Structure formats: structure tokens, C-alpha cells
């Protein structure tokens, strides 16, 4: 059996004459945190949207748990891409119960998830009165309500203050021990370096590095070298 929960092979996405993702291949190990690094517009979100079925690849393969990806695999995938899909006039508990209904899960799962995301003391407070960090944690809760095997997070710390970032970081680090593999997309090198087991660096739709973080290396220099090397490749 493979050690990888997700493999993408030669994944490409074209929009008319623009190549947004250019023959990308990645392998994500089970029960790990994988950091997908790249500047804004590098192709990170496009890759994640193809893995979650929001976009269809132009070419290439996506393998999930050793078989070709199908929409049924979304039952084992959770995602927080862009803004959390939450109802501001409902409480955190009510939002989680709605998510349980959508997934056909018992309501007890809402209570369990509320504890995991550490919002049990705010369960009766309407979400419109939440801080940005609390909203992000609730969005994470909705993403893990179905106890996914793979959790995809696209720039989850955007707009958070240092306290919110620290709280979210600790929550993300706890997921592999619960059997949840995490793909974390970000353009903030320091954030990913603190939590990721392995990283991929993408620029201009091309993966320039894929592997373990070597803390003896200068990650910022590696990042900038890849950005400069791939500049204008697809133009």
C-alpha cells in the first residue's frame, strides 16, 4: 500500500491561452502537513480547486487513496477555500448542525466538533459577532465535520491577528494525530515552515521544489530563486 493519500501527476489547467498550472506532480503523505507555497497568482488555489472538484483539470491525473479521484471521494475530503461558508445570523452550534444535516450526520457530531475547534463557550453567540479568528475556526469546524481523511486549507490565516494565527496554527498541528492529512496553502513562508512536514514551492504554475523542509537551508532564498527562475516561463 502507498504511503500517500493524494498524488497528482502532470496536472495542468489552461484558461484559453493562459496556463495557470503547468504539468504539476505532487505526492502528499498520510497523516502529515504539506505546505504549498507560492506568491499570489502562482497557481496554488487552482490546484486545490481541481483536487476538490471545483475545477476540472485540462489534463493530468489525481489519485486519492491509490485510485483515480471521483466525486465520491469528496466524502473523505474537507476544504476551507476562500471565505468560510457560514450563516452570520446563526450560532456556531447552529451552523455546525446545518453542516451535519447536509452530510447526513448525527447532531452529536456538531457538539464534538465545537469542542475540537474550542468554541464551546461561544456556542450560543451569533456568528456575526465573532472575531475573524473565531469565524476561521468555525469554517475549519465545518470543513472537518465529516471527519475527513484529507483537509485542504487555502490561505487560512489571511486577515488574522497574531493571536488568531497562533490559535489556528496549534489547531492545524493537532489534525495529523486525529488521522487527518492537511494541505496548507500560503504565501507566508514563516507560517508554513512552523507546521509543515514537507513543502512544495510553486511559481507561475510550475513546481520548483517538492520535498522535506531543510531548516539549515535559507527557505526565503530558495523561494525567491524559484520565483525568479520561473518568471515569464508560460508567457
TrEMBL record:
- Its protein name is Antibiotic ABC transporter ATP-binding protein
Q: Which family does it belong to?
A: Belongs to the ABC transporter superfamily.
**A GO MF term:** ATP binding
Tell me the Pfam families matching this sequence. Answer: ABC_tran
Q: Which UniProt keywords apply?
A: ATP-binding, Nucleotide-binding, Transport
Matching InterPro entries: AAA+_ATPase, ABC_Gallidermin_ATP-bd, ABC_transporter-like_ATP-bd, P-loop_NTPase
Source organism per UniProt? Clostridium aceticum
SMART domains per UniProt? AAA (SM00382)
Q: Which domain of life is it from?
A: Bacteria
Amino acid at each position: 500500500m502507498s504511503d500517500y493519500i493524494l498524488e497528482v501527476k502532470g496536472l495542468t489547467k489552461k484558461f484559453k491561452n493562459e496556463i495557470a498550472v503547468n504539468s504539476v506532480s505532487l505526492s502528499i503523505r498520510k497523516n502529515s502537513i504539506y505546505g504549498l507555497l507560492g506568491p499570489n497568482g502562482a497557481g496554488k488555489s487552482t490546484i486545490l480547486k481541481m483536487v476538490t472538484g471545483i475545477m476540472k483539470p485540462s489534463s493530468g491525473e489525481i489519485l486519492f487513496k491509490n485510485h483515480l479521484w471521483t466525486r465520491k471521494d469528496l466524502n473523505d475530503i474537507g476544504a476551507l477555500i476562500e471565505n468560510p461558508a457560514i450563516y452570520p445570523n446563526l450560532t456556531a452550534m447552529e451552523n455546525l448542525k446545518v453542516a451535519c444535516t447536509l452530510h447526513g450526520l448525527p447532531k452529536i457530531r456538531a457538539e464534538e466538533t465545537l469542542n475540537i475547534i474550542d468554541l464551546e463557550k461561544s456556542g450560543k453567540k451569533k456568528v456575526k459577532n465573532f472575531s475573524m479568528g473565531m469565524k476561521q475556526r468555525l469554517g475549519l469546524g465545518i470543513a472537518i465535520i465529516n471527519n475527513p481523511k484529507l483537509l485542504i486549507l487555502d490561505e487560512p490565516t489571511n486577515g488574522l491577528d497574531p493571536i488568531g494565527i497562533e490559535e489556528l496554527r496549534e489547531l492545524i498541528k493537532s489534525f495529523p494525530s486525529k488521522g487527518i492529512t492537511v494541505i496548507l496553502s500560503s504565501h507566508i513562508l514563516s507560517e508554513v515552515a512552523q507546521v509543515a512536514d514537507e513543502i512544495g514551492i510553486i511559481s507561475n504554475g510550475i513546481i520548483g521544489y517538492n520535498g522535506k523542509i531543510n531548516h539549515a537551508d535559507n527557505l526565503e532564498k530558495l523561494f525567491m530563486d524559484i520565483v525568479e527562475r520561473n518568471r515569464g516561463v508560460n508567457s
